[in-house]
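worker-3 :: picked TVP38/TMEM64 family membrane protein
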Amino acid sequence: MQTTTSRKLINLGTVAMLGVSIGLCAYWYHLGVFHDLNSMQGFLSGIGIVGPLVFIAIHIIQVVIPIIPGGISTAAGVLLFGPWAGFAYNYIGICIGSIINFWLARHYGVNFIHYVVSENTFEKYQHYTKDQTKFDWFFALAIIAPVAPDDVLCLMAGMTHMSFKKFFWIIILGKPITIAAYSWALVTGAHWLTQLL
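worker-3 :: tokens ->
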């Protein structure tokens, strides 16, 4: 499969996921789940472990195949499951997805990366990999920064000589900071909006 074709399929997948999300929201609205946040959380509690497992699986998929913006799924976790459980589910899904990205890039190289990342984006970050020590520091700082393209950088890390052990600990220790920042911003923003309304 050509890289341009794969990216077109990813774009189609994004549109399809948007359609599925809209349809699911319409179905939930019909069930009365959206009457208030307590109704939504009550619905999720009623389906037990299935809700969290499906959410974590969706998070893993969106990290490996970027068909859902990461900020949206992170925000959804906090809204749907609350700040603590939402943080935990976001953390688990993102870490597993990031490790899968690293492994795929390490084993399949540039050809795989071009399937999911545009050539312009690849070239934009490739020059950071030329100096391993500098890349390691850059990668660690980027993982902590909430606005960095983490998924792309995890793929780039897989192409370098970074050890899996180092990558693992950067992800495990750095990701909570980013996720906590997103979660805090969401909770604060939601509280602010409720005050206005």
